[in-house]
Amino acid sequence: MNSPLPEKLYRLLESGNRRIDFRKPAVRAALIALGLGTVAMLGTAAWIAYLDVRAVTPSLMEAREAYVRDVRAKIQDATDAARAGRVPPGLSGTLRARIIVNRQGRLVAATIMSSSGHPALDEFALRIVRESAPFERFPDKVRRTTRIVEIVSTFDFR
Protein backbone atom coordinates (compact mmCIF):
# COMPACT_ATOMS: atom_id res chain seq x y z
CA MET A 1 0.00 0.00 0.00
CA ASN A 2 1.54 3.35 -1.13
CA SER A 3 -0.26 5.87 1.01
CA PRO A 4 1.15 9.19 2.21
CA LEU A 5 -0.89 8.79 5.38
CA PRO A 6 0.58 6.85 8.26
CA GLU A 7 -0.57 3.25 8.28
CA LYS A 8 -2.57 3.55 11.51
CA LEU A 9 -4.52 6.59 10.24
CA TYR A 10 -5.17 4.90 6.91
CA ARG A 11 -6.63 1.85 8.64
CA LEU A 12 -8.75 4.06 10.89
CA LEU A 13 -10.22 5.88 7.88
CA GLU A 14 -10.86 2.68 5.97
CA SER A 15 -12.65 0.95 8.83
CA GLY A 16 -15.35 3.60 8.86
CA ASN A 17 -16.84 2.29 12.06
CA ARG A 18 -14.42 3.93 14.47
CA ARG A 19 -15.24 7.13 16.20
CA ILE A 20 -12.94 9.78 17.49
CA ASP A 21 -12.84 9.80 21.27
CA PHE A 22 -13.08 13.47 22.21
CA ARG A 23 -12.35 12.61 25.84
CA LYS A 24 -8.71 11.89 25.05
CA PRO A 25 -6.40 14.81 25.81
CA ALA A 26 -4.45 14.37 22.57
CA VAL A 27 -7.63 14.66 20.47
CA ARG A 28 -8.72 17.74 22.38
CA ALA A 29 -5.29 19.34 21.99
CA ALA A 30 -5.31 18.64 18.25
CA LEU A 31 -8.77 20.19 17.84
CA ILE A 32 -7.76 23.25 19.85
CA ALA A 33 -4.61 23.67 17.74
CA LEU A 34 -6.64 23.29 14.56
CA GLY A 35 -9.17 25.88 15.76
CA LEU A 36 -6.49 28.36 16.81
CA GLY A 37 -4.70 27.92 13.49
CA THR A 38 -7.92 28.62 11.61
CA VAL A 39 -8.62 31.75 13.65
CA ALA A 40 -5.05 32.96 13.10
CA MET A 41 -5.32 32.43 9.33
CA LEU A 42 -8.65 34.25 9.14
CA GLY A 43 -7.31 37.09 11.27
CA THR A 44 -4.26 37.43 9.04
CA ALA A 45 -6.39 37.45 5.88
CA ALA A 46 -8.72 40.08 7.38
CA TRP A 47 -5.77 42.25 8.41
CA ILE A 48 -4.26 42.09 4.91
CA ALA A 49 -7.63 42.99 3.35
CA TYR A 50 -8.01 45.89 5.78
CA LEU A 51 -4.56 47.23 4.88
CA ASP A 52 -5.35 46.99 1.16
CA VAL A 53 -8.64 48.88 1.53
CA ARG A 54 -7.05 51.45 3.82
CA ALA A 55 -4.24 52.10 1.34
CA VAL A 56 -6.58 52.54 -1.64
CA THR A 57 -9.66 54.27 -0.23
CA PRO A 58 -8.22 57.57 1.05
CA SER A 59 -6.38 58.28 -2.18
CA LEU A 60 -9.52 57.51 -4.21
CA MET A 61 -11.62 59.74 -1.95
CA GLU A 62 -9.06 62.52 -2.20
CA ALA A 63 -9.06 62.27 -6.00
CA ARG A 64 -12.87 62.34 -6.11
CA GLU A 65 -13.02 65.33 -3.73
CA ALA A 66 -10.41 67.17 -5.81
CA TYR A 67 -12.48 66.55 -8.95
CA VAL A 68 -15.63 67.91 -7.26
CA ARG A 69 -13.69 70.99 -6.11
CA ASP A 70 -12.52 71.59 -9.70
CA VAL A 71 -16.08 71.32 -11.07
CA ARG A 72 -17.37 73.67 -8.39
CA ALA A 73 -14.56 76.15 -9.11
CA LYS A 74 -15.43 76.17 -12.82
CA ILE A 75 -19.11 76.76 -12.02
CA GLN A 76 -18.18 79.49 -9.53
CA ASP A 77 -16.06 81.25 -12.16
CA ALA A 78 -18.97 81.10 -14.61
CA THR A 79 -21.34 82.37 -11.91
CA ASP A 80 -19.08 85.31 -11.11
CA ALA A 81 -18.81 86.20 -14.81
CA ALA A 82 -22.57 85.85 -15.38
CA ARG A 83 -23.49 87.77 -12.27
CA ALA A 84 -21.84 90.92 -13.62
CA GLY A 85 -24.46 91.67 -16.21
CA ARG A 86 -26.98 88.88 -16.63
CA VAL A 87 -28.63 88.40 -13.23
CA PRO A 88 -32.34 89.02 -13.64
CA PRO A 89 -32.91 92.53 -12.25
CA GLY A 90 -34.43 92.89 -8.81
CA LEU A 91 -34.20 89.18 -7.98
CA SER A 92 -32.27 87.66 -5.10
CA GLY A 93 -32.39 84.32 -3.40
CA THR A 94 -30.68 81.06 -2.58
CA LEU A 95 -31.21 77.76 -4.34
CA ARG A 96 -29.73 74.29 -4.29
CA ALA A 97 -28.99 72.39 -7.48
CA ARG A 98 -28.07 68.76 -8.13
CA ILE A 99 -25.41 68.43 -10.82
CA ILE A 100 -24.54 65.03 -12.30
CA VAL A 101 -21.37 64.59 -14.36
CA ASN A 102 -20.27 61.41 -16.18
CA ARG A 103 -16.76 59.95 -16.61
CA GLN A 104 -16.12 61.95 -19.77
CA GLY A 105 -16.93 65.21 -17.96
CA ARG A 106 -20.27 65.67 -19.71
CA LEU A 107 -23.18 67.15 -17.84
CA VAL A 108 -25.77 64.39 -17.45
CA ALA A 109 -28.33 66.42 -15.50
CA ALA A 110 -28.79 69.64 -13.61
CA THR A 111 -31.93 70.03 -11.54
CA ILE A 112 -33.21 72.32 -8.83
CA MET A 113 -33.50 70.60 -5.44
CA SER A 114 -34.58 73.66 -3.49
CA SER A 115 -35.95 76.67 -5.36
CA SER A 116 -35.06 80.29 -4.72
CA GLY A 117 -38.72 81.10 -5.12
CA HIS A 118 -38.05 82.84 -8.44
CA PRO A 119 -38.29 80.60 -11.54
CA ALA A 120 -36.19 83.08 -13.55
CA LEU A 121 -33.37 82.90 -10.97
CA ASP A 122 -33.55 79.09 -10.83
CA GLU A 123 -33.34 78.89 -14.63
CA PHE A 124 -30.44 81.36 -14.59
CA ALA A 125 -28.48 79.09 -12.23
CA LEU A 126 -29.18 76.03 -14.40
CA ARG A 127 -28.09 77.95 -17.49
CA ILE A 128 -24.79 78.81 -15.76
CA VAL A 129 -24.21 75.13 -15.00
CA ARG A 130 -25.02 74.11 -18.60
CA GLU A 131 -22.69 76.78 -19.98
CA SER A 132 -19.90 75.64 -17.64
CA ALA A 133 -19.99 72.14 -19.15
CA PRO A 134 -18.20 70.14 -20.36
CA PHE A 135 -15.92 69.56 -17.40
CA GLU A 136 -12.64 67.67 -17.25
CA ARG A 137 -12.70 63.89 -17.58
CA PHE A 138 -12.51 61.98 -14.31
CA PRO A 139 -8.94 61.27 -13.17
CA ASP A 140 -7.84 57.69 -13.96
CA LYS A 141 -8.05 56.68 -10.31
CA VAL A 142 -11.68 57.83 -10.14
CA ARG A 143 -12.64 56.49 -13.61
CA ARG A 144 -11.89 52.90 -12.54
CA THR A 145 -14.56 52.84 -9.85
CA THR A 146 -16.98 55.69 -10.56
CA ARG A 147 -19.51 56.12 -13.38
CA ILE A 148 -21.02 59.44 -12.33
CA VAL A 149 -20.37 62.13 -9.74
CA GLU A 150 -23.32 63.86 -8.14
CA ILE A 151 -22.66 67.33 -6.76
CA VAL A 152 -25.09 69.38 -4.71
CA SER A 153 -24.30 73.08 -4.97
CA THR A 154 -25.83 76.12 -3.33
CA PHE A 155 -26.24 79.30 -5.40
CA ASP A 156 -26.69 82.52 -3.46
CA PHE A 157 -27.69 85.53 -5.53
CA ARG A 158 -27.75 88.78 -3.54
Descriptive notes:
The chain is an alpha+beta fold and 158 residues long. The chain has a domain at 62-157: Fusion Protein Consisting Of Minor Coat Protein, Glycine Rich Linker, Tola, And A His Tag, Chain: A, Domain 2, CATH 3.30.1150.10. The chain contains four helices and three strands. The chain has a three-stranded antiparallel sheet, with helices on one face. A hairpin with a 4-residue loop joins strand 1 (93-102) and strand 2 (107-114). The radius of gyration is 32 Å and the shape is rod-shaped. The model has no long low-confidence stretch (mean pLDDT 84).
- For this structure, the CATH topology of the domain at 62-157 is Fusion Protein Consisting Of Minor Coat Protein, Glycine Rich Linker, Tola, And A His Tag, Chain: A, Domain 2
Number of strands: 3
Rounded mean pLDDT is 84
Distance between the termini: 93 Å
Structural class of the secondary elements?
Answer: alpha+beta
Shape: rod-shaped
* Strand line-up in the sheet with most strands: 2-1-3
Outline the secondary-structure elements.
Elements: H1 7-15, H2 25-86, E1 93-102, E2 107-114, H3 119-132, H4 140-143, E3 148-157
Antiparallel strand pairs: 1-2, 1-3
Helix pairs in contact: 2-3
